[in-house]
Amino acid sequence: MEKGVMMIQERSTRWAGLGALLLLLSQMGQAQSVSLARDDFMQVSLQGFDGDRQNGYAWAMQWFNGQLFVGTDRAQNCTQQAQDHEKNSAVPYPPTDPAIYCPPLISELPPLLQAEIWSWNPLTGAWTRVFQSPLNVLVPGYKEYTAPDTGFRGMGVFTESDGTQALYVSGASASDLWPKVPGARLLRSTDGVNFNPVPQDSGTFLGTLHNQSFRDIVTYNGNFYIVSASGFIQGSAGSSWQLLESSNPQEGDNAFQVIPPPTPGLQVCQIAVYNGYLYVAYRNEQTGFEVYYTNAQPPYTFTQVITNGAYDTYPNHEILHMLEYNGSLYLAGLGVDPNHPFSIGGAELYRINSDNSWDVIVGSPRNTPDGGKKPLSGLGKGFGWALNNQFWRMADYNGCLYVGTSDESTIFRDNPQYAALVAPELGADLWSSCDGVHFSKIDINGFEDEFNYGYRTFSVTPYGLFVGTVNPYFGLQVWQGIPNASSLAPRQP
Questions:
Q1: What is the pLDDT of residue 18?
Q2: Which of 116, 110, 103, 57 is nearest to 473 (CA)?
Q3: Residue 343: its pLDDT value, please?
Q4: Is the peptide bond before 299 cis (omega within 30 degrees of 0)?
Q5: I need a surface site. Which of 99, 176, 355, 366 has the fewest CB within 10 A?
Q6: Residue 442 located in a structural domain
Q7: Do the domain assignments include residue 426?
Q8: Structural element, H or E, at residue 6
Q9: What pLDDT is recorded for position 6?
């Protein structure tokens, strides 16, 4: 057994015997809609799982087969800086931030990029690494091998035609940095122990997709839907974010097809099932995001719900997550504006109602063709903090809605001009609402760690609400929230 796994299990022994009690307390909390408080959250993983700071993102999270599964992203800041440096030599590599460790040379990066999947046993509290992407891809022009999966950014459970429930995991490849390496893979597991890629043979649809990543997964009318990012079909021009459909995803190869967007050139960013339809959000960097719904039947007609970034003067250009809550569909926006980080940036939160009318919940007032709209919560973009420029993920737990942010404050922590301004806000925010309109802050400082600048994933489980952080500085963390259970275990694993 690997040393890192043994260490985690040794430190987790105090959780043994608490599983049944934690389950009971979680079920008791479901009787009424009362938000979790800061003291209800406890850290349940070691940093980076086994002290590995390159496990910087808890990028995907899913409850499956009675366990929690978490997919990591590797060395994100290093690969992004290397990619920027390759495009523009004036961009330094490695990063100049002293809290980020990257190898001195880009040629030393490939072996660090082995994405991992970890599972958590609720009865023992033990974490086990169940998959590590192999070092079997030779980087053209290098002598080093890298992994086919540098990160896992989505997970979903799909019931196959024979009744088998399978966990599908969306991979990401290093093709953005090294374009000649293979594109992303889609992994499948029926037991949470063995993970195998679906077929992507040369000459087939998946074999020629060469996408940088697969993303979110949903099931609609018995079919499997997944977002493919930065992919292209061999022989076609340009790149695109596409919506793929399959009735039998385990076959891979030619078992997938593209659902064309309602307008040529639109880039799909998010999907969700709501109100008997498949809702699809598209990013538009010129005029703002757009949202449509479809019954996903040929010839794939779409009905528009929101356009022009919900008519804001400085619109969010992308939707990062869509979630049904309290009979409505909530949309979490991306509000990054690098040119004006302290003013017009900031993420917004929207709500689509069952009659397809829509509201601004968190954001700016604006004029629309249907009249003026003000944020129903009374809170401006980013919950009133412009550097909350991504509402990364949401969760519906015990009748309350939770929203996690990405807070750019951390990167300004040592900036002489802004350090004092951002000091009270360092670290990501976690907010909740038990009516979908009135929000309260649970935490605005990354669970007391300024380097936890994002709450990237949630998972609603029988054992509480799990939150995965983004911390590319010293490694991700996983936290568990359980009603009235904060005194059961120490905060640090």
A1: 60
A2: 57
A3: 83
A4: yes
A5: 355
A6: yes
A7: yes
A8: helix 3-11
A9: 44
Could you tell me the residue range of the domain that residue 373 belongs to? Answer: 3-53+260-481
Please give the pLDDT value at position 43: 96
Q: What is the dihedral of CA 335, 338, 343, 348, to 10 degrees?
A: 0
Residue 211 lies in a domain: no
Looking at the DSSP assignment, which residues form a beta bridge with residue 240?
231
Indicate the range of 14-18, 288-292, 301-305, 363-367 predicted with least confidence.
14-18
Average pLDDT over residues 62-86: 97
- CB neighbours of 148 closer than 8 A, spacing ≥ 6? 133, 134, 136, 137, 171, 173, 182, 185, 197
CA dihedral angle for residue 88, residue 94, residue 100, residue 103, rounded to 10 degrees: 140
Tally of structural domains, the chain: 1
Specify the amino acid at residue 28.
M
CB atoms near residue 374 (< 10 Å): 12
**C-alpha span between 315 and 290 (Å, rounded):** 11
Query: Does any domain span residue 206?
Result: no
What is the overall mean pLDDT for the chain?
Answer: 92
In contact, 158 and 219? CB cutoff 8 Å: yes
Give the span between the Cα atoms of 74 and 115, in whole angstroms: 6
pLDDT per position as a tens digit, 234-285: 434 445 899 999 999 999 999 999 999 999 889 999 999 999 999 999 999 8
The half-sphere exposure of 483 on its side-chain side, counting CA atoms within 13 A, is 20
The rounded distance, in Å, linking the Cα atoms of 447 and 206 is 41
Contact between 99 and 451 under an 8 Å Cβ cutoff? The reply is yes
CATH of the domain at 272: 2.130.10
Q: Hunting for tokens 């538009």 — which residue is that?
A: 284
User: In sequence order, what DSSP letters do the residues of 140-184 get, joined into one string?
Assistant: TTSS-EE-S-SEEEEEEEEE-TTS-EEEEEEEE-STTTSTTS---
